[in-house]
Amino acid sequence: MLTKSDNADPIRLLSELKNAGIKSHVFCMFGFPGTGVKEAFNTVEFALKHADLIDTLDIFPFYYARHTKVEGVKILDNPDFTWNVEYRYEPASPDTLPSSEVNILAEQLGKLVWSEHPQWFHPVYRMYSPWN
Q: What is the pTM of this model?
């Protein structure tokens, strides 16, 4: 979906890294336009099934960053506000989740993965502000 032309076999790649003694880090982004709940669950299922090959893992929601162009979403915020670094968005097509649902999806799946493999997450990602 990200059109990065990266089509390596993930199991083979992770296995080769492990066999060579190289630590692996898996970055999971949920909610990129054209992906949804099914793809997010498939990603988490893959990670849990192949946990022995993964050293660390991140889960992030897709967000529409300033100065980017992403098809499939419509910005809800005023793009003329110069202080915005990211924007709320709504789907421009039926196969895209709204930003509010993407955030919930990433949060819930992050909690699931945390409950199974807390060692995957860097401690900084689990810090909470004392002012919340």
A: 0.80
Taking the domains of the chain in order of start, what are their residue ranges?
23-125
pLDDT digits (tens, 9 = 90+) for 16-72: 999 999 999 899 999 999 889 999 999 999 999 999 999 999 999 998 888 888 888
Between β-strands 73-75 and 86-87, what pairing exists: parallel, antiparallel or unpaired?
Answer: unpaired
